[in-house]
Each structure stands twice: as structure tokens, then as C-alpha cells.
User: What shape does this take?
Amino acid sequence: MFFIRELEKTITLHPSYFGPHMRDYLIHKLHDDVEGSCTGQFFIICVIDHEQITLGKIIPGRGDAEFTIHYKAIVYRPFRGETVDAVVTSVNKMGFFAEVGALQCFVSKQAIPSEIPFDETANPPQYSDGGEQVINKGAHVRMKLVGIRSDVGKMYATASIKEDYLGVL
Assistant: This one.
């Protein structure tokens, strides 16, 4: 689910950047550093407003300055039980991997309906019911998030397509 959050970031600036365009450089550096990053709880999609840039504090012995920027950003936080649309990135006999933006999901063989078995003879590998439902690389699927795990800078999820209205789109 998408939210607007108020966040803050401390940026260290070298003295060579001090001058009339310092504010523009700080804002540009903020966008480069945080957009597309993962905090472990959510993904920062886009900075929409920078509300306040504090006065810089000189770091003794180095001459660099630290600035704290308060900003608003659009963030994506996945929840257990959330239904999402994804694109399949790889398929094997154990299940398939799919991506929901930056979130990587795995759907195990047990979370795929028994009517869609793994087709070992197909190239590329796929789950297929012999008709319309074919899950292969590049397919669009609707799935329900079952579990979410976060590492430093990355989030992973397990999902299921074993309920009504879930599966190949």
C-alpha cells in the first residue's frame, strides 16, 4: 500500500560545494540518495516535498558540514494479506519468482492450484493447465502476500495464488 510519510535525512557536504547553489545541490543529493531505496520497512518511491533544511553544522577537524533535511515522500509498504499484481521473473519446479515493483516474491508449488501443474516438457519452463492459464517468464499474475521478510536494504515476500480471483491476468 502507498503512503505519504514525513522523513528526515542527514547529508554531509564537502566544503567545495559551499556557495550560492548549495541548497540546489543538497536537494539533488537527497533525491539521488533516497529515491528507490529500501529502509527495511518500506520502499521510498519518490520525494514530493522538502520542507526544511537545517543550518549546517561544521564537523570539527574535517571542514565538512552536516545538513538535516525534513521531507515528504511517497512510500510503498507491503502488508500480509494484501493482493498485488506482479510480473513473473523466473519459473522452476519448486514454484516461481515474481516482482511487484522492487519487492521480490516467491510462490511455492504448494501455493499454486493443483489444476495448474508444472509442465516439464515445456521450453521455457512453465505452469500450465493446457488452456488459457500459462505461468511463464513475463506473465502477469495476481497474488496474495502471505509473508514478508526484510533484510538490510531489501524486502522479500512469499505469496499464494490458490484463492478465488488470483492467478494469471
About this structure: The longest strand covers residues 2-13.
